[in-house]
# Entry
Amino acid sequence: RVIDVTTVLLGPYGTQMLGDMGADIIKVEGPPTGDIARNMGTSRNVNMSGVFLNANRNKRSLALDLKQDEAKEVLRRLIPTADVFVHNMRPNAMAALGFDYEAVSALKSDIVYVGAYGFGQGGPYAAKPAYDDAIQASSGLASLFKRQQGAAQYVPAAMADKIVGLTLSQAVAFALLHKERTGEGQFVEVPMLETMVSYNLVEHINGGAFDPQIGEMGYQRVVTPSRRPFPTKDGFVCILPYSDRHWLKFFTAVGRPELMDDPRFCSYLARVHTIDDLYGFIAEVTPEKTTDEWLELCGEAEIPCMPIIDIEDLMEDEHLKAVGMFEKHTHPTEGETILVRPPVTYSKTPGGIRRHAPRFGENGPEMLRELGYDEAAIDALLTAGAVLSDPEAP
# Structure
């Protein structure tokens, strides 16, 4: 069981992956309408956006006004039943509510307690607020576009939120394995900045990996302005010859096999420093054929090649349809929905979608009964607003 006190995308995406694999995720939300992602983007009904549906399945919603002592007592009764406690509030705010690690571990000594927030608490940025754009900016990710396109910009996706969410789910799994083997819980910090710096510098540390530094940072192949989809007669295509064998087959296929003997292109090391010339050559020849012709040619040569797919076309992609990537589900209040299934497959322990994304406070009375509250006490909590429930919830 995971107590999930998170909002927006980072925490909900990470805990949803745990729910997909079978965890009982208790989503603790506050007034007046819960997680802000409930109204993020398009929706049929208020508080149930498409974004929320695809980041909060396999969860139960318990809506608590944690400014009230009665609501805090509900959470205190819930904690001993859980294995994991996750929040993405700034630590001082969680401490002010009375649910920092010391308080929670006093209620459940072997709890895995996870704090996921902008910055590690050992540095001067500890108290700063953070959202995805701020972390793309401060982690160096936005600046990479300056090298490629002349101006810094953000990746058009909530990249930091989702990468840190992935890291959160991994961190919980590691801590649970330790708990399984030793019986020990622990405090786990998943800071956004540190996670994204680690992510970005896998390849972009480059010359910075040496002391003293022996070359510039940044992986040239991916920051070159020439790295972009190549134009064809009727669209755009990704063609990525990589190995010596790929390049020999590509040069041969376009009638220039002698280029493989060119000192600029004859080895991987040489090509690292002449990537602009290589990509420039591809861009010169791709307009001579249609996208389908390039897909066929590269397919025969076993050169990585894919068409540029519009996001609107993903649901009709033949491969994604064949593997059942998009599942249709009937939500009790939202009607027919399409959810993106868990991407990883397991031969022994497959994940899956068992529960719809809950209405705000949908499972409050149910959870209170599990915790031993009688009907009179439940009515009192609902009447006082300590526990809230969406009147439209099934």
The mean pLDDT is 96. The chain has 17 helices and twelve strands. The first strand starts at residue 2 and ends at 5. The radius of gyration is 25 Å.
